[in-house]
Specification:
The complex is a heterohexamer, with 2 copies of chain A, 2 copies of chain B and 2 copies of chain C.
Chain A lengths: L5 E6 L8 H12 L5 E6 L23 H5 L8 E4 H6 L11 E4 L5 E4 L1 E4 L1 H9 L3 E4 L1
Parallel strand pairs in A: 1-2, 1-7, 2-3, 3-6
Antiparallel strand pairs in A: 4-5
Chain B lengths: L1 E6 L8 H14 L3 E7 L20 H12 L3 E4 H7 L4 H6 L11 E4 L2 H9 L2 E5 L2
Parallel strand pairs in B: 1-2, 1-5, 2-3, 3-4
Helix pairs in contact in B: 1-2
Chain C lengths: L2 E5 L8 H8 L5 E4 L14 H7 L4 E5 H6 L12 E3 L1 H10 L2 E5 L1
């Protein structure tokens, strides 16, 4: 398995209502060991996965939102969030968790993992992938 | 007041089974009666004793069992839906020539008439699903 | 006869809430829970539809589902009331029946 | 169980993509034995359940559409179909299966079971029920 | 790189097909199957959206799913091509990747 | 060409398992290879041998088993999803202290790495779900 492929995890569902957001994270974490070129796309209701201040105590489910902050440590640092999807949902970057990583090619400078892109840019990002896992 | 609850989705995939549980628990704690909880469609998958969720996650089936023990609830699994999805008690397993069964304690398998009856006998039927 | 309409789906993903509001008579109540709570956020592509419906209907949102999704109550469309599971039960008991929009 | 309640079966999903349409019919048939006042509502994609000419051979699933024709024999003859839902989907009454029943109060005259109603009328019909089973 | 986009949800119920068409580049292909086939009917509230997208994209619909739902091919938006499961496989093989809009 | 297939939904509730089967069958009949079929989320419920669908309905699990036998397919059930939903083989049942197992023949339980590997090793990954 020396081949490196571009993997895109396409997240279009809100968290908690269904298990897909949680499972997407699970695959990303397991997949990190395979040293592929990994990107995450947050489109449509998928942008709700990244809201800050999630507190699941009242619904009795596990709050998995802290896991997004661990992605940088797994060299998963391309989290593309669609601008139009945010706007339609009354959200801005300020409503999302700050997610960062240390760039080892730039003296370990701390950089933002979240990259807000337009729908047109998102379409290009999808087009550049080898494998798209839809959640 | 007498409630009946219908659950259309299995555990973990959708929040329906969680919402139904929280609703049922709140109703019981307020002193309401629950005439029956009817597990329909994929909802029958709430009733398998073979689940082993992660330690830090809720155990949806056991939660139903404990609630049923505490309040003497009637947990009914739709027989036709159960047959399609591989939920069986000892009788069903025997009748269908299966070498194992998997139903959890406190759950019983019965027909759709139980749902209609729940609609007739209860004051409110609340449906949780996808 | 009064109906409590309950909606558990995001209005950005499905037509459930839009259809519900199209069928909820004046004076009826609508409870948003699970992913349905996203329908109560102000400043979205859906909030005008909800606001218009609220002129003659009561809209509730389930607090535990709001909190799980990191939505502060200050973000809600004006007039939306927050209830907990006990409040959900009360609304069900106070209405004549409960209608799920699945 | 001498009490008679008004039961409404609310069908909002298309057939075959999910099992709900088939299961709704199952409950209606079982429920007929309980002698309640039964109505069926077809709203949103639920109107697709009644299209004529369904042929499931190619997908390997059972064609349950003939069962709708049996409903009249079970005294289930109030099938309310929403006009707006039909129109949005490019359908008219001609695209639906003809469904009839024999009216025993009118010398067994054959009458249409399908009643096309407006959204406003559908809202009233919902309001008049005691129990609403959603599919 | 060419994508075969596949959509299995009704455009009247969910936003999957609308979102798909918003992200499908010129020259890409879209296959409608399961309840997605309803998106290919002409004269609906969605058919103008599909027609506009077809100016620069190829749209296919799965015949067995059409037949199951009683939709005659004469009811389809002009230019939509009907394929069977073997055709679905061929489209997948001819594209560089397959993207599901769930 | 080498395909991989991912299935996210259980049998009967959604058409996903049917579509995936028809796709897999058509691909195999055209001479393509299927590297792996990965059952994820509720998809793991395709792999129980306890189902007894009505006589006039298709038997979704048996259909998978027969296709796997004919073409020597690798049917993999996600272990974490299976634990949450009560799908167990003899080893899993023993490890988790269960008194029964329910996995169908030809299915095997393994980790998510098998999905990633399928994405790497196959030419096309096709996802079927809700």
């Amino acid at each position: 398995m020396s081949e490196t492929k571009k993997f895109l995890y396409l997240n279009r569902k809100a968290p908690y209502g269904t298990i897909y957001a949680l499972e997407s994270l699970e695959v990303v974490l397991i997949g990190a060991a395979f040293e592929q070129d990994v990107s995450l796309a947050f489109v449509d209701d998928g942008v709700f996965q990244l809201t800050k201040g999630q507190n699941t105590k009242g619904i009795g489910m596990k709050d998995f939102s802290p896991t997004y902050r661990a992605l940088g440590d797994y060299d998963v640092n391309k989290l593309y969030v669609e601008k139009e999807s945010l706007e339609e949902r009354g959200l801005s970057l300020d409503d999302l968790m700050p997610l960062t990583y240390e760039d080892e090619d730039d003296d370990y400078a701390e950089k933002d993992s979240i990259r807000v892109v337009s729908r047109a840019e998102m379409a290009q990002i999808m087009d550049e992938q080898d494998v798209i896992l839809s959640f | 007041m007498k409630f009946a609850i219908q659950i259309n989705e299995g555990p973990y995939q959708h929040q329906s089974a969680d919402s139904a549980y929280q609703f049922a628990k709140a109703a019981l704690e307020k002193g309401h009666e629950i005439f029956r909880i009817f597990f329909y469609h994929d909802g029958v998958n709430n009733g398998t004793r073979l689940t082993t969720p992660p330690q830090d996650d809720r155990h949806i089936t056991n939660r139903w069992v404990e609630l049923a023990e505490k309040y003497d609830l009637d947990l009914v699994v739709c027989v036709a839906a159960a047959q399609r999805r591989g939920i069986a008690d000892a009788d069903e397993a025997k009748r269908n020539g299966k070498d194992a069964d998997n139903i959890a304690p406190k759950f019983r398998i019965s027909g759709l008439g139980q749902l209609i009856e729940a609609g007739i006998q209860s004051d409110r039927l609340v449906v949780f699903g996808d | 006869m009064s109906i409590l309409h309950i909606v558990n789906k995001s209005p950005f993903e499905r037509n459930s809430l839009a259809s519900c509001l199209g069928h909820a008579l004046d004076g009826s109540s609508v409870l948003l829970f699970e992913d349905g709570v996203y329908g109560a956020i102000k400043g979205t592509s859906f909030s005008d539809t909800l606001g218009a419906a609220m002129a003659s209907r009561s809209v509730y949102v389930l607090g535990p589902d709001l909190a799980a999704r990191g939505i502060d109550e200050s973000k809600l469309v004006d007039g939306v009331k927050v209830v907990d599971y006990a409040g959900f039960v009360d609304l069900s008991a106070e209405s004549d029946k409960v209608q799920s929009w699945l």
